[in-house]
Design a protein that fits this description.
Strands 1-2-3-5-4 form a five-stranded mixed beta sheet, sandwiched between helices. Helices cover about 60% and strands about 10% of the residues. The protein is an alpha/beta fold and about 525 residues long. It folds into three domains: about 20-155, no CATH class; about 165-280, no CATH class; about 290-525, Rossmann fold, CATH 3.40.50. Helix 4 (about 90-115) runs antiparallel to helix 5, helix 9 runs antiparallel to helix 10 and helix 10 runs parallel beside helix 14. It is built from 18 helices and five strands. The two termini are about 60 Å apart.
Length: about 525
């Protein structure tokens, strides 16, 4: 955004207020000194109206210093003087009003935290808003006199209406509930017991009003604010600071110094921590739901993409030059020695070439997606499928990578193996049953209930969830596999499934499935279990 340039004295005018030459620097310093003069005139004007004299008392020296420091800090942070030159009239008015409100809030917060109750509200807010009135008058006059053309071309944009579909009502309800919890905790922390008094009602009304105003200004409940951890952390910090400023403004403006400042700002600190936890859970839930929608789309895509007809007969088992037998034997010897005899008994490893097999330990779909389609006769994944976020997508992906009548070897932690493993950890019968009640509640009840389901998947991201053996085999049938063997080793279920049919096209599979040991006569007419 280069407005003008010459070799003798380059002038760079950027809309963000960057100062790049001496003339621009002199202009900014001149505006700053003039604005400082307006601030002092405002202070003396209000002081004369309030006290009838220009003589400043010693107790007001602190306020003068505080006003000057706040004015300087906010002007530097907001680039007030360098940006006003480039602003349109509407933008400039908004910048002046915003700076004045921030100064009033910042000074109120400092006065309340330092307990300067003797400071006159008329002098404090009169100085700030009189200064803002002088700034607005001179700024508008400058535009009307020197920038008539720009003023004539300037268009006032209509206010953007909030998109109600983008608001999260559930987040609003949860945060209101958390606010009430924080207020109750603040009362209990200050008084040592929960005694609801008139002062507590005043604090409740203050918090609710400031919370609602802050939420409207920051648009806190819009879903677009939760795209990353950094965005929700920044929103939490801005919300906490705005609420602190708003509470201080009410306390000093209405002289509510009889209320406990420790209780008010302690409650705000508790609410900030609880709010951050709510934001994080909501972010995790949205992240999970987004991944779930993407998975559903990929699931439907894969079902359409890999609807291929399998050969009527399987490939002949012929010996190969480099069988996978030795490779599997050495790999499983260090991982689970008892798994190799189980696989060898059910699968003819001598007929599967090592280049046509894949031995992996992963819960990441990408590690399987890199394999070529229809290029493997056997895939062995030693990572438990409980950590797979979407089982159907995983089984369909394995189906796409296997040749017709290829084998998928998997590992799972089922309800039965989990129960056996859980009771093995505790010797006491009654203690183990008591603890298992809470374990069952978390792993089986929470993922099913509408309210607790969001909390469960937000915390776990769908990992390490328990599934039944019937559910695993039902999903395998649905995705084109037939389980041919199973075994429990070290409290884990290992299964071998063979690709014998195309994935089901039924969008609503029934809950009835034939026994997995029964042969499938017609895959298109077979009931499948999800």
């Amino acid at each position: 955004m280069l407005n003008s340039y010459n070799n003798d004295n380059p002038v760079w005018d950027f809309p963000d207020g960057t100062i790049t030459n001496k003339k621009a620097l002199i202009r900014v310093i001149g505006i700053a000194l003039f604005d400082l003069l307006l601030l002092l005139i405002s202070f003396y004007t209000i002081h004369v109206l309030k006290y009838g004299t220009m003589v400043i008392e010693n107790r007001q020296n602190d306020f003068v210093i505080l006003v000057l420091i706040s004015w300087l800090v906010l002007s530097i942070i907001l680039k007030k003087f360098s940006s006003l030159y480039h602003h349109s009239m509407i933008q400039g008015i908004g910048s002046i009003i915003l700076t004045s409100l921030m100064m009033a809030g910042l000074i109120s917060l400092i006065l309340v935290m330092l307990g300067l109750t003797y400071m006159s509200r008329i002098l404090v807010y009169g100085t700030i808003f009189t200064h803002a009135l002088f700034e607005l008058t001179l700024f508008i006059g400058y535009y009307k006199v020197f920038k008539k053309k720009e003023l004539a071309q300037e268009k006032i944009l209509p206010l953007k209406r909030p998109d109600l579909s983008n608001l999260s009502v559930s987040l609003m309800v949860w945060e209101a509930f958390v606010l009430l919890i924080a207020i109750v905790m603040g009362v209990f922390w200050k008084q040592g017991s929960f005694i609801w008094s008139a002062h507590s009602c005043d604090i409740l009304c203050m918090f609710l009003s400031v919370w609602l105003l802050t939420s409207l200004v920051l648009r806190k409940f819009e879903k677009d604010n939760f795209n990353s951890v950094y965005s929700l952390a920044a929103l939490n910090i801005k919300s906490s600071l705005c609420m602190a400023v708003g509470l201080a403004f009410i306390i000093h403006g209405f002289h509510y110094y009889y209320l406990s400042r420790a209780q008010i700002f302690g409650t705000l600190a508790i609410f900030a921590v609880l709010e951050l936890a709510v934001f994080w859970l909501y972010y995790r839930h949205r992240d999970y739901k987004k991944a779930e929608q993407e998975a559903e789309y990929q699931l439907s895509t894969r079902q359409k993409q890999f609807q291929c007809s399998l050969p009527s007969e399987g490939e002949k088992n012929e010996p190969c030059a480099d069988p996978v037998d030795l490779k599997i034997h050495h790999a499983l010897h260090f991982f689970e020695p008892n798994l190799y005899p189980f696989i060898r008994k059910r699968v003819d490893l001598s007929s599967i070439d090592a280049s046509e097999s894949a031995l992996v330990y992963t819960d990441n779909f990408f590690n399987l997606d890199v394999l070529e389609n229809f290029g493997r006769k056997m895939i062995v994944n030693l990572h438990k499928i409980n950590d797979m976020r979407f089982l159907n997508q995983y089984f369909l992906l394995a189906h796409a990578k296997l040749k017709p009548y290829g084998y998928l070897v998997g590992k799972a932690h089922t309800l039965a193996t989990h129960k056996t493993h859980f009771f093995r950890q505790f010797s006491g019968q009654y203690i183990s049953r008591f603890l298992y009640m809470f374990d069952f509640l978390w792993h089986r009840i929470f993922p099913k209930l509408p309210v607790t389901k969001k909390l469960y998947f937000a915390l776990t991201k769908g990992k390490n969830r328990l599934v039944s053996k019937a559910e695993i085999f039902g999903r395998l049938f649905f995705c084109g596999f037939r389980p041919i063997a199973e075994i429990e080793i070290s409290d884990r279920l290992y299964f071998i499934a063979q690709k014998v049919m195309t994935p089901s096209e039924d969008p609503n599979p029934t809950l009835r499935a034939p026994g997995w040991t029964e042969p499938l006569r017609n895959p298109r007419q077979t009931d499948h279990r999800l």
